[in-house]
Amino acid sequence: MKHKLKIIDLYIIRKFLGTFFYAITLLAVIIIIFDISEKIDDFLEKDAPLKAIIFDYYLNFLPYFINLFSALFTFVAVIFFTSKLASNTEIIAILNSGISFWRLLRPYMISALILALLSLFLSNFVIPITNRRMVDFERKYTKSMAHSDNMNIHMQVLPGTFIFVESYNAQAKVGYRFSLEKLDAKGLSSKFSADYITWDSIQHQWKADKYVEREINGMKEKITRGKSKLIKIPLDPKDFTLNLDDTKVMNYWDLRRFIEREKMRGSPTVAKFEVEKYKRIAFPFATFVLTIIGFALSSRKTRGGIGMHLGIGLSTSFAFILFMQISTVFATFGSLPPIIAVWIPNILFGLLGIYLLRIAPK
């Protein structure tokens, strides 16, 4: 019975979670109103049904929004209601009743654990599903399919099998100046070249036009030429145009398999996909870090009251978010390992939180 929650624990948990969900719901309503005013012309122009707008778009928007601002609003919630407790001298009364400063931190950490688990579940399993529905809605009612071209694509599609495409037209699903090379222990074993390849949506294969096929066996070489031929390679049209948005519709396990496949293919953009993977774990953990900092800053009664605490708290949270963005940029475009880039803000601000707890008046 030693660890049984007391009335004061339940009171703080209720205040914490209540303030969090009230604040984030209020902001969500405001954001949705502004978003509707911005997209109303697209909805009317493309005759988007009201049911689709509500259930396919905005209902699926809420999990993404809640998760996006969960760390920030955790911090705001802690600052807001803890400052009120401090200004009403409730914290002094709690400490005078025999509850230690560190024991008072327990309901905060329980609340943070609930929100962190919620964020972990949303980001890895719920949001990929809701994002898929949002993307389908946007493609149908708000965004037109844009023409895009990719240049000089190198890729390993299987161990020892490499392709090269000089340029790729995503709209027409056509690749120009295509080559497929196979290597073995002795070196190049075959090379298949074509002026261009086109995706056959019926056969679900690529059709090569004006091709040259070379089979190499030691000093012997066989050359075959032809007008067109279907070729089997484990490659879809979407593999030529992958971007970070595509990974946002993958759950955690799909994302891990996708990254392993991209590593095998030698993709130059693996780092940004790994950043996305590690952020799905590190971002929920930030809930604990910001809860500790918020508690340490606002548990002391000051002359500035709630306004002073909120000002300091918001500055700290924005510094945390800015630091995370900067570190991920270094991972994506520099040499900083993604796992370090994503976790270093949590580590540094976690140490700051521990220091603030140690110096906080008890």
Account of the protein in words:
By secondary structure, the protein is α+β, with helices and mostly antiparallel strands. It has 2 domains: 7-143 and 270-359, no CATH class; 149-240, no CATH class. Helices cover 61% and strands 19% of the residues. The radius of gyration is 27 Å and the shape is elongated. It starts with 6 loop residues before the first helix and ends with a helix.
Topology record:
Elements: H1 7-45, H2 50-68, H3 70-87, H4 90-96, H5 101-104, H6 106-141, E1 149-158, E2 161-169, E3 174-184, E4 187-200, E5 205-217, E6 220-231, H7 244-247, H8 252-265, H9 270-298, H10 305-333, H11 338-359
Antiparallel strand pairs: 1-2, 2-3, 3-4, 4-5, 5-6
Helix pairs in contact: 1-2, 1-3, 1-6, 2-6, 3-9, 3-10, 6-9, 8-9, 9-10, 9-11, 10-11
Describe the structure in brief:
The chain folds into two domains: 7-143 and 270-359, no CATH class; 149-240, no CATH class.
Which structural traits does this protein have?
about 350 residues; alpha+beta; 2 domains; 6 strands; elongated
